[in-house]
Amino acid sequence: MAIGAALALRGSGRMAVSILGDGDFSMSMNALWTAAHYAIPVLIIIANNGSYLNDEIHQHAVAETRRRPTENRWIVNKRWIRARTSPQSRARKASSATVRSNAAPI
Question: Residue 6 burial (CB < 10 Å; 0-12/13-18/19+)?
């Protein structure tokens, strides 16, 4: 996001402009809050392309590595998902969970 550039331009009469995809924008809410909180002038244009392109590129590369048709790149390994979402798997996770607290005793 262009908040750093906008901060550098602050008071110069120039405005930073940022053109972001919707996925990039959704991952930078804390920077937007900072800009609003400190009144940092910036213009953000959001392109709604409905995609996390970085993830799509990764899926394509994984499909090629696994010698799967790239048009099926979004298909995940169902056995892998079942192994991690089975009742036995959930029971193992629950039994190994521990509660920790850093709070001072009352």
Answer: buried
